[in-house]
Sequence to fold (186 residues):
Amino acid sequence: MCESWHIREAVRRIAAGGIIAYPTETVYGLGCDPFNGVAVMRLLALKQRGIEQGLVLIASHFKQVESLLASMPPATRKRVMYPGKRPVTWVVPCLPEVPYWIRGSHHSLAFRITTHPVAASLCDRWGGTLVSTSTNIHGRRPATGPLSVHKAFHGQLDYVMHNPAVAANRPSEIRDGITGAILRPG
Fold:
């Protein structure tokens, strides 16, 4: 487990508008405050990725993301509110107030309830959701450890957490929260 001072330092950098790299249950993630538009735009520029795709948010529990979501049927809510045995990113309708830089050209939000102890600790210490996009230049292989993060971004990030505990080494499966349909295999 990552030492608590690493978590505190990462959160300090996020609060200052910074971009961090951190381990998740899938691949290393690039993260920032999802409501800081300047930080998100910088993150997208680093990834060389368009805003229209939208971004994934992570949370340590459903309550952290719930206020962003539109009303949903009870079956959908039950499906998306708990992490499963495999990491799944859910796409569900969101409130119109969710910033464009998070949802892209969609009326939905992609989020995952993380089970990774470092990623969950980051969300808890931050007090809410964080951006969680793969740590790579758009279209290239995601980073699976601190060394590949440094190679990909050459000192352009504000903090890199050095914790090799990444489980899957591939992005999460993405599913439609309403229908359960697989949008991207994991």
